[in-house]
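Ticket #4471: structure output looks truncated?

Reporter: J.K.
Steps to reproduce: submitted the chain below (272 residues) through the standard prediction queue, then opened the result file.
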Amino acid sequence: MATPDILYANTVFANTHVRTKMGDATMLTPPLEITAEAEQAKRLVMRDVWRASELAISRAITGTTGHPQLDAELPNGGWPRSSLVELMVQQHGIGEMQLLRPFLTGLSQKQRVAMIQPPYVPHAMAARAWGMKVENMMWLTPKSSADALWAAEQILKNGSCGAVVLWQPNVRPEALRRLNLASQTTDTWLWLVRPLSAAMDASPSPLRMSLRPAAGGVSVDIIKRKGPHCDELIFVPLPDMPVPQRSPVVPAEEVFTPAPGVLARREVPVLM
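Returned output as attached by the reporter:
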């Protein structure tokens, strides 16, 4: 049976003394030095590796939302192209179109934008006032949800529009998967607007947000994204949203106590 000295004679341990069969002689192995070339090679290898603790950065094309506070929380800093984005609203008309306004305004100058089954009739004059090119705005009113999903899928496949905004109250899981796959094969932006109750449902969409009304804007909760969970709500100010009208501040020396039995009139903040 080999002695420990012979068994471990050819073993190399970093930063440790190794006893060899040459008697009591010891050898100290120096640590390996990391050169600049090795650091550069490491950065090249790790360039396409995404860690779950950080926002994903990829070669995917994105478009800025026009809201800096929202761009800072989105992977690649904007709306992703060739991807299904879900917007779940507490109720329609709380500012979801104003949230998309900066991006759609710029896109409509060169490409068509399709709006499929919106809950309200689009107003051409309002779109023109926003700076959108009305000639490139399409309004589709299919008779059923199946027809609306089919229309969205066909637009994605043929690439006739630069963006699609689809409103649907209920979407089956297989229909979501079809939309997600269709969006990945085209150079089109796709938003699916759903009720807030759909936030509890599973979805293949890589980016999901819930929207709630807020004074002077909208409150955004990022439910799902490629990156760490977003714990805080994001307030996005919107210029055309109503703001609370507050009464002027009265100096303390001018405040008086009303006589008994007489109610003092005071202004109450009202959300217009």
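Triage note (M.O.): checked the attachment and the full token line is present. The longest helix spans residues 145-158.
Status: closed, working as intended.
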